[in-house]
Amino acid sequence: VLLTAEGIMDAADIARKTLATLRLCQRRLPSRPQYCFGIRAMLAVVRSVVQAHAQLPDLPDAVMLAKSFHDAIGSSLAPDDQDLFVDIVEDVLPGLRETRLPRAPPNGVEADLEASCLECMAKMHLDPDSQLLPSCMELYRTL
Length: 143
Hints:
Layout: H1 2-5, H2 11-28, H3 39-55, H4 61-72, H5 79-92, H6 108-123, H7 132-142
Helix pairs in contact: 2-3, 2-5, 3-4, 6-7
């Protein structure tokens, strides 16, 4: 219903694939206290799909959904579980493994936060290509 209300035409297919992916994550990924693949994760993916649809309207549904999974769930997973997560998404959305997922431009507040995070990472000699920046941005989006 949320996807349809936002004008996403293939909402039923996206919802079905979202639920299938979350169920696979719950079954196949190790149980960790910080992992949640229930309603909170589903809403995070739906919000991410809506945001991606608004910012990148010409993006194919499968790529938009894969991007949303990685933005909403992938950034919060332990590094050991990242490869398995990519495999799960590939199982539900075949053919996307080699697709480079586009990154929507951050809005004003997010752009400032990202710049501040990168500045702090540079001062602390941390790798800007690590999972730290996506994790920080995901934390901000969940607040």
